[in-house]
Amino acid sequence: MTDNHRINVLAVVYHPFSLWRAPDWLSTRLRSDFPQVHATQLPSYQNVEDHIASADALIGWSLRAEQFALAKRLRWIHSPAAAVHQLLLVPSIAQSDVMITNAATIHGPVVAEHAIALILALAKRLPWAMRYQQEKNWAQQIMWDTEPRPREVSGANLLLIGLGNIGREVASRAAALGMRVAAVRENPARGAETAHEVHGFDQLDSLLPGADYVVLAAPLTPRTLRLFNADRLARLRKDAYLVNVARGPLIDAAALAHALGRNQFAGAALDTFDEEPLPASSPLWTLPNVFITPHTAAVTEKLWERHYALIAENMRRFLAGRPLLNLVDKSRGY
Fold first, then answer.
1. Do domains 7-105+302-320 and 107-292 have the same CATH topology?
2. Residue 224 dihedral angles phi and psi, to the nearest 5°
3. Which of 99, 199, 213, 230 is close enough to 203 for a disulfide, judged by CB 3.0 to 4.6 Å?
């Protein structure tokens, strides 16, 4: 593709949460920065069919099969999310030669900060302290007498599930706090420079009993779907904590609620869920050993400026026919 070739870009990024929606300036800046680009931005998917047929590139979370069937010119889809399973669930997209890029490098550092914040909150028993504050209860002795007690993270064992953009950022921050990091990933031959040890998924069961903290940072794939079922949750130590900043379906929600309700392990900090918003009927809301954040791990006021920097760089590459950054391997799902 040459620099003077005119292309059509369709941006459809809607979400009930305002920060996840593309700002109004997205298409304006694309047109300003790239005279070859005709950018159209829609506030919803309502009229996608009117524009998708002429689109060379799409910026969006998802596309239905019947919409993709109209997209004869489409060559590139950019998802402003780290996970792209919504796109790959459409067989015609997964099997096509349309390139998919994601925003994993945008979210990695921010989500990693959140994961570390959750680890520290659990270690220092901050959610429990907040409850005592609301009761005006100076609970110093109570917090010391209650197992597990407040503790330090230096010297603790972190088991990290996934060593992609988010996982690597978690590993480096955890190591800086003095934690020993073991990671499980699809290809254990890679990542030794980031974690103290790297293993394949076949070693997961044997690693779980040695972990003080388990952080889920893996993509959602057939292998990781319900990865943490009742059997694996039962392998966690009594004083271990589970943190999920990846995708809700990595955990069997019913098994998790059952295990936490019986205090099989110390507790969980959860940012993602099978169903979002989390229904009021979910037992996770009222379990005292659960700390919930409402899918805010990636929230930052700098988000869309970072998104645009990646989109603009990939647009330059797309126009010049050069390899794109954050290109998804469709066969792996990430």
1. yes
2. -95, -10
3. 199
CATH number of 7-105+302-320: 3.40.50.720
For residues 8 and 194, give the distance between their C-alpha atoms in angstroms, rounded to a whole number.
40
Domain ranges of the chain: 7-105+302-320, 107-292
pLDDT tens digit at each of 334 positions of the chain: 444 578 999 999 999 999 999 999 999 999 999 999 999 999 999 999 999 999 999 999 999 999 999 999 999 999 999 889 999 999 999 999 999 999 999 999 999 999 999 999 999 999 999 999 999 999 999 999 999 999 999 999 999 999 999 999 999 999 999 999 999 999 998 888 999 999 999 999 999 999 999 999 999 999 999 999 999 999 999 999 999 999 999 999 999 999 999 999 999 999 999 999 999 999 999 999 999 999 999 999 999 999 999 999 999 999 999 999 999 999 999 9
pTM for the structure as a whole: 0.94
| CATH superfamily, domain at 107-292 | NAD(P)-binding Rossmann-like Domain (3.40.50.720)
